[in-house]
Amino acid sequence: MRFTDKKVLITGAAGGIGTTLVERFRAEGARVAVADREVAGIIADAHLPGDLLEAEYADGLAEAARDGLGGLDILINNAGVITRGPVTETSDADWSRSLGVNVEAPFRLCRSAIPLMADAGGGTIVNVSSCWGGKAPGPNHALYCMTKAAIASLTQCMGMDHAHQRVRINAVCPNEVNTPMLRSGFAKRGFDPDEAVGKLGETVPLGRIAEPEDIRDVILFLASEESRYMCGALVEVNGGKAVA
Ligand SMILES: NC(=O)c1ccc[n+]([C@@H]2O[C@H](COP(=O)([O-])OP(=O)(O)OC[C@H]3O[C@@H](n4cnc5c(N)ncnc54)[C@H](O)[C@@H]3O)[C@@H](O)[C@H]2O)c1
User: What is the CATH number assigned to the segment(s) 7-175+212-237?
Assistant: First the structure.
């Protein structure tokens, strides 16, 4: 019960990693506000549906969570979208959506959450970056890698800049995770997702790609007192498969 009475806001709460985060934070005593485009079916303590591409929604989310929960101790910027392909196959719409969800929304959320947390004596923020970008680029995902590099850099900067306010900001950098984001990509390219996930697992030294819970547990660590001296860290979670 590391999070008894802690107030937590999670974006992308309906997704693969998000769902496991909501359940685990609540199981460990937290009160959780869930943000995603559709949150009606999620068991939580405050429901804040909306589109992170809308600036007004993203700007108001931290305050809405604070009001709905009676405080805000922890923010998890987990929502994300993936654009595949090189820049020559990337549209203006891909650019706006990728930058909007993966970089601008976390920027807006951090900008509004940090003062709320600082005024209340402190807090923690965990951003979800990726090995791809947060550590090194992978092939044929130029825009995705660039956005994940941007949020990684922002995390390092904010981690330094706001430690004196007792707001700790870190990021997790997963390699491949078995979620709808990854599986839908396989399906789109005509592969059977189960088979493709199994094959991909053979490229990982631990013998399988990550399950959402493998990433969740590192996010919970970064959100908890156990990581109390960590600020601006990028934590790679890769089963031994580093991005070269
Ligand atoms: N799955 C992987 O292999 C992998 C690897 C590294 C990093 N990540 C990162 O992990 C995070 C979680 O991804 P996931 O794998 O659980 O994917 P997912 O697609 O299952 O979940 C992402 C969630 O973000 C939400 N979202 C997207 N655009 C939104 C918008 N405009 N407004 C509100 N909500 C929006 C979606 O509705 C979805 O519920 C993402 O930031 C992703 O980039 C995933």
Answer: 3.40.50.720
